[in-house]
Structures are given as structure tokens and as C-alpha cells.
Design a protein that fits this description.
With about 260 residues, the protein is an alpha/beta fold. The chain has one domain: Metallo-beta-lactamase, Chain A. It has seven helices and twelve strands. The protein has a seven-stranded mixed sheet with strand order 1-2-3-4-5-6-7. Helix 1 links the parallel strand 4 and strand 5. The mean pLDDT is about 95.
Amino acid sequence: MLGKLSITNGTSLRVHTYTAPELGWYVNSHTIELPDKLIVIDAQYTLSFANEVVSYASTLRKPISRLYLTHYHPDHILGAAGFHVPIYALVEVARKIEAVGDRVAREEHEKLGDIIPTKAERPERIVSPGDEIIDGVRFQFIELQHAETEHALMIGLPDEKILITQDLLYDRVHVFIGEKAFDSWDEALDRTVALPFDRYLPGHGDPGGKELFASMKSYLSVAKREHTAASNGEAFKQSMIAAFPDFRVQALLAHELRFLFPS
């Protein structure tokens, strides 16, 4: 297996986090192991890494019953073709994937070839914010607005005090800030850290505790300052590498430059 696995244990369930290697931008797919079934959160960037998630899930000897796509970015949705299960998303996320998903898939396919599909899978089921009992476990679906992107889904397991934040949080991975929502993202961090959770599963990098919020706030503060100061994309990229020399996936810095410095 090329990816990395970590397990978050609850009292009545486990969450298996698959973190892709550098080529897959250290993106996380979280498999929630319920008594009789599995729920997967996000589908990976490439089909090859999605297949690793599916292969690992098969060792748990329970069926995957749902795949949730938390937002429309390519590293979270393009592996969905490897799952063959019902796909769930917020209505706004489903509309965004319908509108731009195929274009995003073609762009990434041109970069990496056949490990990326040429079209994006469409969510078939709409999830609404609120609580739902699945296989006897309480899920809390939380709509996140104006952070990394305009609309995204977070999934809480309130009885376990576990929150799957996805790209509200990163851990020691360069952050995609292409939508430049520095202030509203910072406010979303403040709102979320006040919720009654104490274990957090981010979109990129390792699971952790509340220290992930301070790290994200620091990164966003530096990124906002350096974006304002930079005369061009390369200058910004180099300033962020210098500020966070141990952070992984410099490819994310390159990916966001066309949004940050459109010419």
C-alpha cells in the first residue's frame, strides 16, 4: 500500500483514515466502521489511491454503503468512480460538481493520464444539515461556508466527540487558498473549535486535537500577509516554502497560483 493508515477508536466504532502519498496531495479518505456497514468520506484524487481505500475496506468484511463527497475539489472527488456505491453530497456541492466536475477531471487527466478519470461522478443523494441515525450511530451533518470553498460538508460523530472537518483543517500540508477567503475561514475555525468535539480528522495530514486549529490560523495569517506582499505567483510560492519549510505537498502551492494571481 502506497498510502498511510491511521485509526481513531471510539467507544462503539472506529474511523480508518487513509492518507495518500505526495502524488495524492496527502488527502484523506475516512472510513467509518459501523456495526454492520462502512461509510466513506471523500474519494481521493486518483483512481489508484481510491482503489487502495476500497481494497483496505474489503479487509474489514463489511460493505461500503455510502460515499460522501464533502466539496468539489479534484483531490476529494475524482476517485469516486472506484467505489460503485451511492454518492451523497450537500445540494450546493452536487450542483457545483454538475457544473464544473467534468472540466476539472479533464484538466487533471491531462496532467496525470489514466489514473485520473475524464469525467466526474455525480452525487445521487442529497444530504441536509442535521442529525441522522445510521446503523445505530448518530451522525451530525454540518454545512461549512466560506472557508476553503463556498460550501463544504463536515461530519460529526457527537457521541464519540469526533469531527471529520476535511478541508477546514490541514496538518503540516500546504493549504489551498485559491478562493482567498482568509477572514471568513478564520471565523469558521473559531466557530468550529467551540463545538463539543475533541478529536478532529482533517482533509490532509494526520488526525489530531485542538492544536490543529492554532496551526491553521497561523498558516492563514501568514498566507494572507504574503499574498498581499507578493508581486507574482513565484514570489508568493517561495515565501510560503520559506515560512513553512517542513510542510508537505508544494504541488498545492503551484496548483493555486492561477487563482491567486490570474493573468
